[in-house]
Write a structure and sequence with these properties.
The complex is a heterotrimer.
Chain A: E1 7-16, E2 19-29, E3 34-38, H1 45-53, E4 60-65, E5 68-69, H2 75-81, E6 83-85, H3 98-104, H4 114-119, H5 121-141, H6 157-169, E7 175-179, H7 187-202, E8 206-210, H8 214-220, E9 223-228, E10 231-236, H9 238-243, H10 245-253
Parallel strand pairs in A: 3-8, 3-9, 6-7, 7-8
Antiparallel strand pairs in A: 1-2, 1-4, 4-5, 9-10
Helix pairs in contact in A: 5-6
Chain B: H1 2-34, H2 42-57, H3 60-63, E1 66-68, E2 71-74, H4 85-107, H5 112-132, H6 134-137, H7 157-183, H8 186-196, H9 198-203, H10 208-234, H11 239-242, H12 245-258, H13 263-284, H14 292-313
Helix pairs in contact in B: 1-7, 1-10, 1-12, 1-13, 2-4, 2-5, 2-10, 4-10, 8-10, 12-13, 12-14, 13-14
Chain C: H1 2-8, H2 11-40, H3 47-61, H4 67-88, H5 99-120, E1 135-138, E2 141-143, H6 145-168, H7 170-180, H8 182-187, H9 192-217, H10 224-227, H11 229-239, H12 244-269, H13 285-297, H14 314-322, H15 332-339
Helix pairs in contact in C: 2-6, 2-7, 2-9, 2-11, 2-12, 3-4, 3-5, 3-9, 4-9, 6-7, 6-9, 7-9, 11-12, 11-13, 12-13
The chains are: A alpha/beta, B mainly alpha, C mainly alpha.
């Protein structure tokens, strides 16, 4: 690896009861890349994402993000450091409008703290205005303008996926973890989503995505990491991964 | 003139208690309607506020035990600092809010029904303590001779009613405005998001535990405030009936009727449901001898019926959750 | 037990016996409650009032016929009531989460309790059984044939019956499968609707029995069931939600601890210790304290399983990490570059 990785895991472990979902997983993600994470079902990919994002605490190993050790930190700190994650099944906030969903993702909004509400009203107004503008900007990027003031629970499946991505972008993170961003999404929408991701990557963002759609993985990813039974078994360009015998075996046998 | 003021005093009592229940409902609405924390121990926070306020504002002389002929007729109670009523209310809020914060820390991570069981257990423990710690709380008799905010001489029930309604009304309106401001703010938005999906809200970068703690503690403080007003309205407190679980269940109905997350609805719900209670007391005088108590039982059955019907057919209550259209 | 008796006197055995009797009633109730919790997924706050209903039905029938006939009739009446509740109310609340049916059950309880008050007044009744004396065993230790022996016997019978039902009958196995994993049970062809109605029937029948036992031991009053509801919840939670065997264990723990706490409380009540007034009255708080402790430390109880995801309390973790500070490790990438 020529440059320092933006995200690195070292021997990360996570067990649920007796099941070792993640069993000594080590990997690196380069900055300004679109890196894919593939592997058969049950390989531990989503669990790894949850560990990186701080939603689970690892039983062992280390997670480093941009020169900082982040394993054990809570999600709200990790988001502030610049790492966000989407969910495989969209977790939109149902009784909030689409716009509210996005404004919520603000990184530091004075109005979210009671003390500020009463003591610094001008700052509250200023921050709220700023983040509403940013929310509208992201709405435009993901072409969700039309449903800005609709309850999130009224959205279609594809729109909810878009909202997932949009929410992860609002706080201007440096790396975004996407859990199956185009699963169940129609091909046209999938293409525009991936085009958007490539555009944002050119602007400096890093994307680390779990995907089962091999078209996306082969055509859009710079590097691919393969997980099987809780650990990485291969890493390289899409072409080299395709030909790797260990990878083929894991998909056939696993 | 005497008959007229009698009716007005009676109505004043209805309004005062509706206001008190409305404040309880607003507190519960903040905890459950906005933040999704199902507090089944409302009666406990209500009790703590009422007793703390009473202990603060009763005079030393009135707090002492009463012994007649060697028999302790009244065990006396702790406190008796004779503080002004506004200070009593403030202390009540601090006591209830502080207790809420303390028990929130270990229990807020529990699932909704576990939280309900834990909080109802808490409320029962508080009630058992209030009944049995005689020298502290006055035991089953409770606290008597609580002073009113303004003592009129000669004593005038009509003016007493006016005072309480006046003070209570001002507090209710102020509380409503403050709550609306807070609930519709970005802070309130985080609460609503936590209610809808806590995991997702955490993933978006919010310290949901801190927000839940704030909502629970503030809600508890409001319940304490309601307790203080209760003490001043009734001028006596007894632990067994006034703070039973049925109080908690009644507040649930009030908030569900008004629509969870809807402050206006909570106040309307309180006036409606307390109206049932007040009505049953009025009708009692017109009921035939054997059926007098039946009216109370019917009232509870109506509340039970409402709970079932509302949950089954109208979970969002009479007034729906408003869409917040941002510009 | 013998050492305890030697040290504290035979009275301790009496409290232990009372604890076992209380535990028997709680166990029967807790098995029923945990069936609903496991198979219908919610805390049935009407359960105490269902117990009360059972006792009153037995009382009513017992005025025209034998007490035992009354108890048996109540058993079946309550089973029918349970199935009616599922039919009218609870099957419509499927998939709404644990709070909606909880609130509805509170409503049901209010209707039951106050309906009973309206019809039977708040007067306390006693069952129509012949009055008998306590049978002394040793000085300071006695057992009452009805409150003691009969209750223990019935409790044991019901525990064994529950065990047979759950382990050896098809219905029981279906119940356990449904409680464990609803979707899986459905896909393996189990008629989950039948299981649900059966669960309600068994649960309320057990409630009726517990109510009758309670009425035998104390009095029959409108709040008798509600008064011990939290005790039964404590048993179910201590033992583990949805596990009838856990409920049995929890009932034992809760019943024994409440009664065995009495001598300790009396000791606290002595003027030379704290002088706690009404010390004995605090015994009812003991199960609540156990309940809260279990909820804080191990919410899934003795026999339950911890969930995969539970919200973390970060400042607690931070505190515990502060106490076990480790040296910050060297970054492997740096080592790589140095090593070449």
């Amino acid at each position: 690896m020529e440059t320092k990785p933006i995200l690195e895991t070292i021997g990360v472990e996570k067990a649920f009861g007796g099941i070792h979902a993640v069993d000594g997983c080590s990997l690196r993600v380069s900055p300004r890349s679109i890196t894919g994470l593939i592997g058969p079902n049950g390989a531990g990919k989503s669990t790894l994402f949850n560990l990186v994002a701080g939603l689970y605490q690892p039983n062992g190993g280390e997670i480093w993000f941009d020169e900082r050790r982040i394993d054990g930190l809570p999600p709200y700190v990790i988001v502030r450091l610049g790492l966000t994650k989407t969910w495989q099944i969209p977790h939109e906030l149902r009784n909030l409008t689409v716009l509210e969903n996005l404004v919520l993702a603000a990184k530091s909004n004075a109005g979210e703290h009671l003390v500020n509400l009463f003591l610094r009203p001008q700052l509250v107004r200023k921050d709220e205005k700023r983040w509403r503008a940013r929310a509208r900007e992201v709405l435009g990027l993901t072409q969700l303008d039309g449903v800005a003031n609709d309850f999130a629970k009224t959205l279609s499946g594809g729109q909810r996926k878009l909202l997932e991505l949009a929410r992860a972008l609002v706080s201007e993170p440096s790396i975004i973890l996407l859990d199956e961003p185009v699963a169940g999404v129609n091909p046209t929408l999938a293409k525009s989503l991936m085009d958007l991701i490539e555009k944002l990557r050119r602007e400096g963002k890093t994307f680390f995505l779990i995907e089962h759609d091999m078209n996306v993985v082969m055509n859009r990813c710079d590097r691919v990491i393969v997980m099987h039974q809780g650990r990485t078994i291969a890493e390289g360009t899409p072409a080299s991964i395709k030909a790797d015998p260990a990878v083929i075996e894991s998909y056939l046998g696993g | 003139m005497a008959i007229d003021t009698g009716i007005l005093v009676n109505l004043g009592f209805y309004v005062s208690l509706s206001i008190i229940f409305a404040i309880l409902a607003l507190g519960f609405n903040l905890q459950w309607g906005y933040t999704g924390l199902f507090n089944a121990g409302i009666a406990g926070f209500f009790l703590i506020g009422a007793y703390v306020a009473a202990m603060a504002i009763t005079s030393r002389a009135d707090s002492l035990p009463i012994v007649i002929g060697g028999v302790t007729v009244y065990p006396g109670h702790w406190g008796g600092f004779g503080l002004p009523f506004w200070l009593g209310m403030l202390l009540a809020m601090l006591a209830s809010g502080g207790t809420a914060a303390l028990i929130a820390i270990p229990t807020l991570r529990l699932r909704a029904d576990y939280l309900a069981i834990a909080t109802i257990a808490f409320a029962e423990i508080v009630r058992i303590l209030a009944i049995n710690l005689e020298t502290v709380t006055g035991g089953t008799i409770g606290i008597i001779l609580i002073p009113r905010p303004i003592e009129f001489s000669p004593p005038d029930p009509f003016l007493n009613a006016v005072t309480i309604v006046g003070i209570g009304g001002v507090i209710l309106i102020a509380l409503f405005l403050v709550l609306q401001f807070m609930a519709e703010s970005p802070w309130g938005r985080v609460l609503r998001a936590t209610r809808d999906d806590e995991e997702a809200t955490m993933a978006v970068g919010k310290n949901t535990f801190s927000y839940k703690l704030q909502a629970f503690a503030l809600g508890g403080a409001f319940m304490g405030l309601a307790g203080a007003l209760f003490a001043m309205t009734l001028v006596y407190l007894e632990p067994a009936l006034s703070f039973a679980p049925s109080v908690t269940f009644s507040v649930w109905v009030m908030v569900i009727v008004g629509g969870a997350g809807n402050n206006r609805g909570a106040i309307v719900g309180a006036f409606l449901i307390y109206g049932l209670e007040w009505l049953s007391v009025q009708l009692k005088d017109f009921a035939p001898q054997g059926l007098k108590d039946t009216i109370f039982y019917i009232r509870f059955m109506i509340i039970g019926f409402l709970l079932i019907i509302l949950v089954m057919f109208r979970p969002e209550g009479i007034l729906r959750e408003r869409k917040r259209t941002l510009r | 037990m013998a050492t305890l008796a030697l040290v504290f006197g035979v009275e301790v055995l009496q409290f232990a016996l009372t604890g076992l009797v209380v535990a028997s009633i709680v166990i029967v109730a807790a098995i029923g409650l945990s069936l609903i919790y496991g198979i219908r997924g919610f805390a049935n706050f009407a359960y105490g009032d269902l117990m009360t209903l059972g006792a009153y039905v037995a009382l009513g029938i017992g005025m025209f016929a034998d007490f035992l006939v009354g108890a048996i009739v109540a058993f079946f009446v309550l089973a029918a009531v349970g199935m009616l509740l599922e039919l009218l109310i609870f099957r419509r609340l499927e998939g709404r989460g644990p709070v909606a049916p909880l609130v509805a059950s509170v409503g049901v309880g209010l209707i039951l309790q106050n309906g009973i008050r309206a019809i039977a007044t708040t007067q306390q009744w006693n069952f129509n059984v012949p009055a008998v004396q306590t049978i002394p065993i040793v000085p300071g230790l006695g057992i009452h044939p009805v409150r003691g022996i009969a209750t223990l016997a019935v409790g044991l019978t019901f525990v064994v019956s529950a065990h047979i039902l759950l382990k050896y009958t098809n219905l029981g196995k279906s119940m356990r499968a449904t409680a464990d994993n609803l979707e899986l049970a459905k896909s393996t062809g189990i008629d989950t609707t039948r299981v649900r109605y059966a669960a309600w029937a068994v649960s309320c029948a057990f409630a009726s029995t517990a109510g009758v036992l309670l009425g035998l031991g104390t009095v029959v009053s409108p709040t008798m069931g509600f008064d011990i509801l939290l005790l039964v919840f404590a048993a179910v939670i201590v033992g583990g939600i949805g596990s009838p065997y856990g409920a049995m264990l929890g009932g034992l723990v809760v019943g024994l601890s409440q009664e065995m706490a009495v001598p300790l409380l009396f000791w606290l009540g002595r003027p030379d210790v704290i002088g706690l007034q009404h010390a004995g009255a605090y015994k009812v708080a003991i199960p609540f304290l156990i309940l809260i402790s279990v909820l804080l430390v191990r919410p899934w109880g003795i026999a339950g399983r911890p969930p995969a995801f539970s919200p973390r309390i970060y400042f607690v973790e931070k505190l515990s990490r502060a106490f076990s500070r480790k040296r910050r490790p060297v970054r492997p990438a740096d080592v790589d570059e140095q090593g070449g």
